[in-house]
Design a protein that fits this description.
single chain, 108 residues, alpha+beta, 2 helices, 3 strands
């Protein structure tokens, strides 16, 4: 899957990763901005929570890719289970309606 597609899927579920450079605010700092730093953001109840993950090194970016892969696996597992539950619900609802209709015929 292309990284753009992965980002869109993760954003749909409220998870995003971004790299940021930070200004320290010290007057005489010659190395501003500092970074790059890797952050994760997620939506919780209408608010965005940002989590600092560390300096954006190659190994941390590789871990980010692993996190993305695991999140996508979790989403696929959720969607499969959700579909199974939905199908089970429809079957039980159909059985219930059939039982109710057959009981009604006996009362006539």
């Amino acid at each position: 899957m292309k990284s753009r597609v992965l980002r869109e899927i993760l954003k749909e579920y409220g998870l995003d990763f971004y790299v940021k450079y930070v200004y320290c605010g010290k007057e005489k700092c010659r190395s501003c901005p500092h970074g790059p730093y890797l952050y994760a953001s997620r939506r919780e109840g209408g608010k965005v929570k940002n989590v600092y993950l560390g300096k954006a090194t190659a190994s941390l970016l590789a871990k980010k890719d692993e996190i993305v892969r695991k999140v996508l696996e979790l989403l696929m597992e959720y969607e499969i289970k959700n579909k199974q539950i939905e199908e089970e619900f429809k079957k039980k609802l159909s059985d219930l309606l059939q039982d109710l209709l057959s009981q009604e015929e006996h009362f006539d």
